[in-house]
From TrEMBL, chain A:
<dbReference type="Pfam" id="PF13379">
    <property type="entry name" value="NMT1_2"/>
</dbReference>
<keyword id="KW-0472">Membrane</keyword>
<dbReference type="GO" id="GO:0012505">
    <property type="term" value="C:endomembrane system"/>
</dbReference>
<dbReference type="InterPro" id="IPR044527">
    <property type="entry name" value="NrtA/CpmA_ABC-bd_dom"/>
</dbReference>
<protein>
    <submittedName>
        <fullName>Nitrate transporter NrtA</fullName>
    </submittedName>
</protein>
<keyword id="KW-0997">Cell inner membrane</keyword>
<keyword id="KW-0813">Transport</keyword>
<keyword id="KW-1003">Cell membrane</keyword>
TrEMBL record, chain B:
<dbReference type="Pfam" id="PF03861">
    <property type="entry name" value="ANTAR"/>
</dbReference>
<dbReference type="InterPro" id="IPR005561">
    <property type="entry name" value="ANTAR"/>
</dbReference>
<keyword id="KW-0597">Phosphoprotein</keyword>
<dbReference type="InterPro" id="IPR011006">
    <property type="entry name" value="CheY-like_superfamily"/>
</dbReference>
<feature type="domain" description="Response regulatory">
    <location>
        <begin position="8"/>
        <end position="123"/>
    </location>
</feature>
<dbReference type="Pfam" id="PF00072">
    <property type="entry name" value="Response_reg"/>
</dbReference>
<dbReference type="InterPro" id="IPR001789">
    <property type="entry name" value="Sig_transdc_resp-reg_receiver"/>
</dbReference>
<dbReference type="InterPro" id="IPR036388">
    <property type="entry name" value="WH-like_DNA-bd_sf"/>
</dbReference>
<dbReference type="GO" id="GO:0000160">
    <property type="term" value="P:phosphorelay signal transduction system"/>
</dbReference>
Length: 352, 196
């Protein structure tokens, strides 16, 4: 007989950023998975990763949807004072890409068939730079993100140098599309729905996705401070299980319409369901939300992220205890016992 | 030389009134203030051009990520900016700043103690502003509540054929019996009477 351990806290504030992959939090709330676990959750829309990080660090939020590298960067103190953070659950995989303006992509297509593999495209891009007469400006969102690492990875792969060949700038995701349409930038590397939207609006075309370049990778995770985790072990587990259930719910195709209707609501993405629907259909970026291998924190990707931080000079040397560090942040050890389907079922039955 | 600290401050805030008042206060302390209110597409350029010693930015501005990216991405930028907390050990000041909705970035090499007064001023202004906004929201809520009560009274008078005082008494009794606020009771009365 499983008994319900007392929740240390039942009213929670969780942060999110209005991107397609905030879906698991939205579903956990709207479909009642939080409530089933005895949790009352307010979802707080944050306008930047920086503000989300600070609010989690200083306890204004109990936890949040985070870019996969964010808890690692916070633990290392790469973006502020060191603050130990961790994740027991991956919210989504993949779903990011480099998009080029239609004008630049048209030029590229003259030198290279659109269907060619990404190596041929990269080579053609590099060759095109010499004839362009200007340095294309490529925008990205945040330095501790797969987006930034992907862009740097792709540029390095084709010996394209920042400063000499292209320029990098930063801009908020919500402004990317209009910057691209105005011609202020020539491309960007962002998450969904912004790549699909550019294609849909005829402003840009996909150059390469993270999935093509890297294979499946953690994209967004559920992040909390390790201090919060220590003080609320039962709430931590209940919250994680509710969101894991939401991820599984998203995986069923018959829930798609309901999901898009919820995501479209003003407190979340604040878009029309029709627009989201066409974006969701266009997406070839392999954005995934469910499956035990999808939601399990990946130590391998954690170590890969450490390497990317070094490659981008955010980290000068690999920490001596790199493996221990990675497994203290990406808590595969919590996911496994917490998200066994049988464990969740038993707990819920006991609660009824 | 006396201890003259005048610094170049870049304010990034979408709230025109708040930015005006804070600018005034910082001018009085002898600082040079550059304001940035709208089109953020040029924040990159403005920081590069103006080389501020400190950037004070609304906690909820989407441009915070832009600022943090600039610090990481442009090694050629001679004065990368760093998040204030990196140089600050004072947990309380940081917590106060975040509660007030203030975040601050300072140029590499500027001593944290030189900017403490600026950050304190910003926190004070942001907090005062938030208090005003809360008060306004409360007054608006009260007004809306009063409207609901008036409407419920009208419906009750028509429905029960009673006078205004009796209708109000009914509402008040309901509120006391149910342990609810008057506007909440009024709203449910409207729901019931409108559908019957």
């Amino acid at each position: 007989m499983v008994t319900i351990d007392a929740l240390e806290k039942t009213e929670l504030q969780l942060g999110f950023v209005a991107l397609a992959d905030c879906a698991p939090l939205v579903v956990a709330r709207e479909q009642g998975f939080f409530r089933q676990q005895g949790l009352q959750v307010v979802l707080s829309k944050e306008s930047s990763w920086a503000s989300l990080r600070d609010k989690v660090s200083y306890g204004l939020l109990d936890g949040a949807q985070m870019l996969a590298p964010l808890p690692l960067a916070a633990t290392l103190g790469l973006n502020g004072k060191p603050q130990k953070m961790e994740t027991p659950l991956v919210l989504s995989q993949n779903g990011i890409a480099i998009t080029l303006s239609s004008a630049l992509q048209r030029r590229l297509n003259m030198a290279c068939e659109p269907g060619e593999d990404q190596h041929a495209q990269g080579k053609a891009f590099k060759a095109m730079l010499a004839e362009l007469g200007y340095r294309p400006i490529i925008a990205t969102v945040y330095p501790f993100s797969n987006h930034y690492y992907l862009l740097r990875f792709w540029l390095a792969q084709h010996q394209i140098e920042i400063g000499r060949d292209v320029e990098l700038i930063a801009a908020p995701p919500g402004k990317m599309l209009s910057l691209l349409q105005r011609g202020d930038i020539d491309g960007y590397c962002v998450g969904e729905p912004w790549n699909s939207l550019a294609v849909q609006e005829g402003a840009g075309e996909l150059l390469v996705s993270s999935y093509t370049l890297w294979g499946a990778h953690m994209e967004k995770v559920l992040g909390v401070t390790s201090e919060w985790a220590r003080r609320h072990p039962n709430t931590y587990r209940a919250m994680t299980q509710a969101i894991y259930q939401a991820c599984q719910w998203i995986g069923l195709p018959e829930h798609r319409d309901t999901l898009l209707n919820w995501l479209a609501l003003p407190p979340y993405l604040d878009a029309s369901p029709q627009q989201l629907r066409s974006v969701a259909l266009l997406s070839t970026l392999e954005q995934r939300f469910s499956g035990r291998e999808v939601n399990r924190p990946s130590l391998q990707h954690g170590e890969f992220l450490l390497q990317q931080m070094m490659r981008c000079q955010q980290l000068s040397a690999l920490p001596a205890d790199a493996q221990a560090l990675v497994s203290s942040v990406y808590r595969e050890d919590l996911f496994t016992p917490w998200c066994e389907p049988a464990v969740i079922d038993q707990r819920l039955r006991a609660a009824q | 030389m006396g201890k003259r600290v005048n610094l170049r401050v870049l304010l990034v805030d979408g709230d025109a009134q708040r930015i005006r008042q804070l600018t005034l206060a910082l001018h009085q302390q002898g600082h040079r203030v550059i304001c940035h209110t709208a089109d953020i597409a040029s924040l990159n350029q403005q920081v590069a051009k103006e080389q501020p010693d400190i950037v004070i930015i609304d906690m909820d501005s989407p441009d915070r990520d832009t600022l943090e990216s600039m610090a990481m991405m442009s090694r050629e930028n001679p004065r990368p900016i760093v998040f204030f907390a990196e140089q600050q050990n004072d947990h309380q000041t940081m917590a106060a700043a975040i509660n007030a909705g203030v975040s601050a970035y300072i140029a590499d090499g500027v001593q944290p103690d030189r900017v403490t007064a600026i950050i304190d001023t910003a926190i004070a202004h942001f907090s005062a502003h938030a208090a005003l906004r809360e008060e306004l929201a409360e007054i608006k809520g009260q007004l809306a509540g009063r409207k609901v009560v008036e409407q419920a009274k009208g419906l009750l008078m028509k429905h029960q054929g009673c006078d205004e005082a009796a209708a109000f008494k009914t509402l008040r009794k309901l509120a006391m019996d149910r342990g609810q606020k008057l506007p909440d009771v009024a709203a449910s009365v409207i729901d019931i009477l409108k559908t019957t």
